[in-house]
Write a structure and sequence with these properties.
single chain; alpha+beta; Butyryl-CoA Dehydrogenase, subunit A, domain 3; two-stranded antiparallel sheet; 14 strands; globular
């Protein structure tokens, strides 16, 4: 497998320019996160991810994980890489200093998340939730829980797992049956959870499970769920891992992809009950858990860009090396030539590049929005960024992961028959990517969240504010002579999306089932236009940067070209989804799998 080279220049462009680090580090809490400091930090972190973590990716896929009596065993290279991750302090980056962290914005942490996911997606799933769980405890935990657990999570000494799904209840959490019996100083947890990522392993000294369960006499449905912190080892009086808790992994799944990420079935309370500690208020567990889930959904959306990045780098190298076929030039017929000289190979590579850049830009903008929503000095600014980030989240999770399914498989196509052979390595990214449209809320769930909560929930207010931002960019783009064709395409897409939003706000009162039937296409429509928004901004920034520094000319020229490709090849897909949305969902509701009509 070709070595991974972190695209630090692209990442820093996304942080500094698209996500506007200058606005984030103007906040008092982040003033130490200067552009020079962030640039240095990202470049240093890139060395670890390229030199230490990336080489473990293919071997992890080949070896996988195993289950023994003591728990889950990982490849020894994972244990070493995890230790170096902690030694470098990369996991502690966004935790406040009082919790043992470095107090950097979540925006900057997103760069490390991207590189970690690109270097080794399966490995990344273990430390990925640390900052999200930290947020849950910070906002919902008691002082005692925060004092004991947050420093351990920040350092990575104690890893975390999110424990939701049960055999009889998949995405519908209202059917969860795990019980929590109150005791003097804690609860006793009884139940089984399935599909729990990294519920056990041998890389950290303790593992903390966030578990949704019901206390006695809880209301039915999701309103009756409470959230509990359940450690693998119950801390002793000195805050060290003590007695083994009544938590046991009984099996691990054999999966299509992410083979080196332990996906576990966990039993809680086979004996006396697993000791757990209430996080937040009783019966308010789902709202507390959503603090973590919404944060994770942005990270998962970025996984689409991360996996595409690695696949793109490999496909690009192969396209330069592989010689096949001939081309006709003004000098005559030449051949055999590197396949990158064939127009269709260039199309596929350009598609991968433009798609991943758009996904990445939306993810970084959302990460900056989270920082602003929590730390902006004015309440109206916090409210604005909270609403915008909430709107972007299901689009990032849904559209980004759906688009990435196509993008990563293009690498296999570029490799041709060699891409279908496991030894070349590109099939791993296609296999790993398949699950990202499913976990952390499937694409259908994201689409319904976008329509029901984010659009109808506030009668389109947040959506129209974003549309105003996009229209302003379209207008500015039209003022740059060499970008006017892009401006025309983007302006038309923004206007059509705006008209569709207005139509949906009226249409939903007439036929709610048909609205659900077209929700997915509305999400994809929104994603392609909002991806165009970020690529339009990219083109504007790059065009303004031309000539300011001769060393940047090639970089900015490439950014403009990639943005132009997006507008010409990817943005037009919005038209297809628009036609589906405006056509209504009646044909969906009359169709049954056996060929009969409803």
């Amino acid at each position: 497998m070709a070595p991974y080279t972190p695209p630090t220049r692209d990442i820093l462009f996304a942080i500094n320019q698209l996500a506007e680090l200058g606005s984030v580090n103007s906040l008092p809490v982040f003033q130490h996160a200067t552009e020079d400091m962030v640039n240095t930090l990202v470049e240093e972190a890139a060395k670890y991810f390229a030199e230490v973590l990336a080489p473990t990716n293919q071997l992890g896929d080949q070896q996988g994980v195993s289950l023994c009596e003591s728990g889950v065993l990982t490849p020894k290279e994972f244990v070493s890489a995890y230790g170096q991750l902690l030694e470098n302090g990369w996991l502690s980056l966004s935790f406040p200093e009082e919790e043992g962290g470095f107090g950097f914005p979540g925006l900057v942490e997103m760069a490390l998340v991207e590189m970690m996911q690109t270097a080794n997606m399966a490995f990344s799933m273990c430390p990925l939730l640390a900052s999200g769980v930290g947020r849950v405890l910070r906002f919902q935990g008691t002082d005692e829980l925060k004092a004991l657990y947050l420093p351990k999570i920040a350092s990575g000494e104690w890893s975390v797992a999110m424990s939701l799904t049960e055999p009889q209840s998949g995405s519908d959490l209202s059917g969860l049956q795990t019980r929590a019996i109150p005791g003097p100083n804690h609860y006793r947890i009884f139940g089984q959870k399935i599909f729990i990522t990294w519920a056990d392993h041998d890389m950290s000294e303790n593992i903390l499970h966030l578990v949704l369960a019901r206390i006695p006499d809880a209301p039915p449905g999701s309103r009756g769920l409470s959230l509990f912190l359940v450690p693998k080892y119950v801390p002793d009086n000195n805050g060290l891992p003590g007695l083994r808790n009544d938590v046991k992994v009984v099996s691990i799944e054999h999966k299509l992809g992410l083979r080196a990420s332990a996906t576990c079935t966990v039993n809680y309370g086979d004996e006396d009950g697993a000791i757990g500690y209430l996080v937040g208020k009783e019966h308010r567990g789902l709202s507390a858990m959503f603090i973590l889930m919404n944060h994770a959904r942005i990270q998962v959306g970025l996984q689409g860009a991360s996996l595409t990045e690695r696949a793109y780098q490999m496909a690009l190298e192969y396209a330069h090396e592989r010689k096949q076929g001939s081309i006709k030039t003004s000098q005559g017929v030449q051949g055999p030539v590197s396949i990158i000289r064939h127009p269709d190979v260039r199309r596929m590579l350009s598609q991968m590049k433009a798609g991943k850049d758009a996904i990445k830009a939306l993810g970084y903008v959302a990460a900056a929005g989270l920082d602003m929503s929590e730390h902006a000095e004015l309440a109206e600014d916090r409210e604005f960024y909270a609403a915008r980030t909430a709107l972007l989240t299901p689009i990032i999770k849904g559209w980004s992961t759906e688009l990435s399914q196509e993008l990563v498989q293009l690498a296999v196509q570029i490799y041709g028959g060699m891409g279908y052979i496991e030894e070349t390595g590109v099939t791993q990214f296609m296999r790993d990517a398949r699950v990202i449209t499913i976990y952390e809320g499937s694409s259908a769930m994201q689409a319904m969240d976008l329509v029901n909560r984010k659009l109808l929930g506030d009668e389109g207010k947040a959506f129209f504010r974003v549309l105003e931002e996009m229209q302003s960019v379209a207008t500015e783009l039209g003022g740059v002579e060499e970008l006017q064709n892009m401006a025309r395409l983007f302006d038309m897409a923004v206007r059509q999306l705006s008209e569709t939003v207005e139509w949906l706000l009226e249409y939903h009162n007439q036929d709610t089932l048909s609205l659900q039937a077209i929700a997915f296409d509305f999400m994809m429509l929104s994603g392609y236009v909002m991806g165009g928004w970020q690529m339009a901004r990219t083109a504007l920034i790059a065009s303004h940067g031309m000539g300011t520094n001769p060393g940047d000319t090639a970089f900015f020229t490439d950014k403009v070209a990639t943005s132009q490709f997006y507008m010409a090849f990817l943005l037009p897909r919005a038209q297809t989804h628009l036609q589906v949305v405006r056509g209504g969902g009646g044909s969906v509701l009359t169709f049954l799998p056996d060929g009969q009509v409803a």
